[in-house]
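Q: Here's a chain of 505 amino acids. Please give me its 3D structure as tokens.
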Amino acid sequence: MKAFLMHRDQDFDLEGKLPSNEQVLTQDLELNTLFSAMAQKDEFLFKVVRKAVLSSLDDLDAILYRQDILKDCLKNPSLVREIYAIAVEAIEQEKKNYLGLFSRYPVAILHRSIEVLQMFVEMLKKLRNYADEQANKFDSEGFAAFFNMLQKELDDDYFASIQEHLKTLKLREGVLISVELGKGNKGTNYTLRKPEGKKQNWISQVMDRFLASKSTAYTFTISERDESGAKALSELKDRGINLVANALAQSVDHILSFFNMLRIELGFYVGCLNLQERLNQKGEPMSFPLPSTHYQRKHSFSGLYDVCLTLNLEQRVVGNDVNADEKDLVIITGANQGGKSTFLRSIGLAQLMLQCGLFVPAESFAANLCARLFTHYKREEDSAMKSGKLDEELGRMSDIIDDIRPNSLLLFNESFAATNEREGSEISRQITQALLEKGIKVFFVTHMYDFAHGFYDQGRDNALFLRAERQRDGERTFKLSEGEPLQTSYGEDLYNKTFGTKGEG
């Protein structure tokens, strides 16, 4: 049995390898805020959503497959949570039935497996009931296949067969074992045999004994005080049921693995439901993005906001409208503390959310897939640094170059500003030019006028220049609009706001 609720034809690998830059992405995009909102203090859910978000899908059909399943979940949140709860309960109940010191005894293994399998049967029946009664409320290919699998695999004959086997394996009528003699007359090929049938009544037993011409079997009785004999008989019994006990334990493991995978895969969607509830409470917009292939250049949206910022604030945050279709380079300049870094983070978050099948924090959003997502943000001064800030930035850039490939997306946030304007601009220009030539999309937040205006003067059709808005009185709107890079970032506004305007005593 397979759930296939994250991929069309394979299980979701919770222990799979994450991107080499996952720690950098987590830090620069503040991803732990997103993961925490989705997990709601559930460590297991945190692990699942972290793995899903950071493991970007690179196939359009796979993303749309997952989007359709999530749309079903958003339409039926209570039902999805109930199915998830069944998987969790099954796993927790199995853990409570612990063998401990008796794990090496076949009799104990058999007894434990029977109890667990009986519990699993009840949980599977609940899932089958959901398939019978609720399947018509779901439209996605993934849920249709899931419910169809439950109905096909868990039919009435299946449950009847299991109950019959469990009844037999309780061995209430004793144990019938066959054995062969091996070398040195040692027993070999111990095999548990099926009982011959129902017990005969006492009249039949008397008649059989009376009519039998001679005995066809030999019997012996062990004295109640014969501990050695009882031990030997117990060992014979263990040998006889060993294969059956192991086979039943494997069956339990098989069903347990199904519940584990169901919990993992539905866990991602439960995390999505948690996030949707948080954003709905604030009245923030959400939409399903329109993905396109790697080779297209799509990046247009309305009302895009930083989901991690809004999760940390009581009020709603400002969204932005941008059309960067057919653009390889977006350079963002403008007023200090005008929302440039927040906008850049919203770009990275939306890309990750798109490529894991999630909705995005925007009124509408369309973008091409990226092969990999990278960030290169400025870092605070580190007293433990063995070299200067510029060397450290260049070192991180070198690491990115080692991993990056065509059709990736790279976000720069005030990079290479640790040196003078002229040198920083030249470094930025050469790196950006090389990236563009390799088919890599670049978003660059910068205060370096020489760098930004140098590209602006080239009149590139594939470049877009955005500027953080500043009102005439110095107030920031946190909106970005198209505009030529300016020589000032209006740092005096921040000075005046902090220390008062000139002339104030």
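Q: Can you summarize the key feature?
A: The chain has 16 helices and twelve strands.
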